[in-house]
Amino acid sequence: MRYFKPGAIASVMALSAGMATAGEIAVIVKTTNSNFWQNVNKGAEAAIADQSEHTFSFDGPATESAVADQVNLVENAINRGVSGIVLAPSDPEALAPAVKRAFESGIPVVIIDSGLTDSAKDSYQAFLSTDNCAAGEEVAKRMIAEAGSEGKVAVMSYVAGVGSEIGRVGCFSDYLTANSDLEIVGPYYSQSQMAMALNQTTDILASNPDLVGIFGANEPTAVGMGRAIMQAGKAGQLVALGFDGNEDLQQFVRDGLMQATAVQGSFAMGQMGVNAIIDILAGEKVEPFINTGVVLVDQANIDSDEAKNVLY
After folding, report:
1. Which GO terms describe its cellular component (predicted)?
2. Per-residue b/e over 110-125, b at no fewer than 16 CB within 10 Å?
C-alpha cells in the first residue's frame, strides 16, 4: 500500500515500546449516525471485553462532512492523554496534522477504513481496511456480468477525495472503462447523506431513462439510491449494486431491487483496530496493512455464514 514506508514502522514501534500499557483507547470514526460505524463500535467493544487493562471510548461527528469536528475529537483525545487512537479519517489531509501530533505525543494511532495523505505515513503504525480498489473492481465485474458491456452506468459516490472513495470508485470506473463500452454517468457526491443521494438518484433516473446500471458506493448513498429506484417504480429495470450491508440494503437484495451489495468487515475494523493498539502498547509487532475483507452479498448467499459474519 502507498501509505507506508518500511522504515517508518520500525521507528514508530521503537517510540511506542516504552509507553504505558494501560489506559483509554479512543475510537474515532467518521460519524456516529450510521449503522456501519456502530458496527465498528461493536467490534471495539468485543476487543475490550477480551481483556481488563484497557478501556475505550467511541466518538465521531454528526456527519461525515463535519471534518473540523473530527479533527477536534482527535485533538481532545491527545489533550486528555489517551493511550492509543483508532481513527477512521474523514479527510486524508485535514486529519494528518492531528495524527502527527499524536505521534509526537507518544500516542500510537491505527487508521481504519480510509487512508491518510502520504505526508502522514510516518505518523501511524497500521492501516486496517478493505482493499477498496480490489472491492471496486469486484463490483465492476458484477456490473458487467449483470448489465452487459454497453449502455450507461451511473456512479453515486459519497465524499470526494476520501481514501476509500478514491480506491473504491476510481477502480470501479477504471475497470468498467478498460473492460467494457459502458458509459459512466457521474460520479455524483452525496456527502454521505441519504436524503441527498435519494434526490440525486431521482434526478439522474429522470434525466437518463436509458440507464442499464447504477452503483451506490457507501451505506447512506446506496440506501438513498435504492429508495429513489423504488419511488421511481424502476426496481428490476436496471442493475443496482450497493456497498455496505445494513438492514435496508439487505432488504433491497432480498426484494430484488438491488442485485448485490459489497459488504466490508466493519465489525472486524473495530475489533482488529483496538487489538492492534493493544498489541502495540504491549511492544508486539503489528503488520503495516491489514485487509479486513469484503463479501459480495446477493440473494444466493445472503443467508450463508459468510454473509452473516459481515452484515449488520
Report:
1. cell envelope
2. bbbbbbbbeebbbbbb
